[in-house]
Amino acid sequence: MKQIYLSVLLFFILLSAAMAQPFKGGVAAGLVGSQVAGDTYSGFHKPGAYASLWISLDLNEQSSVFTELSYFQKGSRHNPDEKKQDFDFYLIRLGYIEMPFLYEYHMKNKFTLEIGPSFSVLLHSHEELNYDEVSYGKFCLLNPSLMAGVRYPLTYNINVGFRTSNSLLSIRADKINGAVYRIFDSGQFNDCILFYLSYTL
C-alpha cells in the first residue's frame, strides 16, 4: 500500500509539473458512524475514528482531483434494549487503510462537492456476540466502495466536511444469513458517514 501511495504522489508531482500548477496537501481527522448492511441490524451505531494525509491538484478554477491515505474504522454495533425484550449485544470492529480517488467541483458559494471510488485494505477485524468472540465468515482483505461528500472552508487553512461511503462488494468472502443485494454483489456491506476537519499545510 505504501508503494501505491508513493506512486500516486509521484504521478501528482509529474502532472502538476506538466500543467505548471502546484498541488496542495494536508491532514484530516474526524468521527465515523457506521453500520453493516446485511447483519440483520440497522442504524449507524458503531462509532469510529478517521485520520488521513491528503493531496489534491487543481485542474481549473472549478475542479480538482484528490487522493489520500487514511485509517478508517468501520463496523456494526447493536446494544441490548430491555424495553423491547432484546438482550443481544453484537459488535463488528473493522480497521482499514483506505485510498479514495475523488473528483472535486468547487461551487461559487464556497462549497466543494466530491465523488469517486475508494479502495480499502483490511488491517484488523473483530466480531463478538454477547461479549464472546465469534466468526460468521471470513472478512475480505480488499473492499472497494463509492464515496461522496461536501466540504466548506472555515478559514483559509481549515475545512469542515461530510462524506458517505458505501461498499460496492461484500465485506465477507463467505455468504451468510441476512445477506442483502447490491448492484455488483450480495452479502454484507459497509455503510459509513464521516464528519471531519481538514487542515491545509
CATH class: Mainly Beta
With strands numbered from the N-terminus, the spatial order across the biggest sheet is 1-2-3-4-5-7-8-11
The number of helical segments is: 1
Contiguous low-pLDDT stretches (5 residues minimum) are none
- Give the helices and strands as they follow along the chain: HEEEEEEEEEEE
Strand elements, count: 11
Alpha-carbon distance between the termini?
23 Å
Query: Structural class from helices and strands?
Result: mainly beta
Number of structural units classed as domains: 1
CATH topology: Porin
In short:
This protein has 201 residues and is mainly beta. It contains one helix and eleven strands; from the N terminus they run H-E-E-E-E-E-E-E-E-E-E-E.
Describe the structure.
A hairpin with a 2-residue loop joins strand 5 (112-129) and strand 6. This protein has one domain: Porin (Beta Barrel), CATH 2.40.160.20. The chain is built from one helix and eleven strands; from the N terminus they run αβββββββββββ. It has one helix at 2-19; strands spanning 23-37, 46-58, 63-78, 90-106, 112-129, 132-133, 142-153, 158-167, 180-181, 186-187, 189-200. With 201 residues, the protein is mainly beta. The mean pLDDT is 89. Strands 1-2-3-4-5-7-8-11 form an eight-stranded antiparallel barrel. A two-stranded antiparallel sheet has the order 9-10. The radius of gyration is 18 Å and the shape is elongated.
Mind sketching the topology for me?
Elements: H1 2-19, E1 23-37, E2 46-58, E3 63-78, E4 90-106, E5 112-129, E6 132-133, E7 142-153, E8 158-167, E9 180-181, E10 186-187, E11 189-200
Antiparallel strand pairs: 1-2, 1-11, 2-3, 3-4, 4-5, 5-6, 5-7, 7-8, 8-11, 9-10
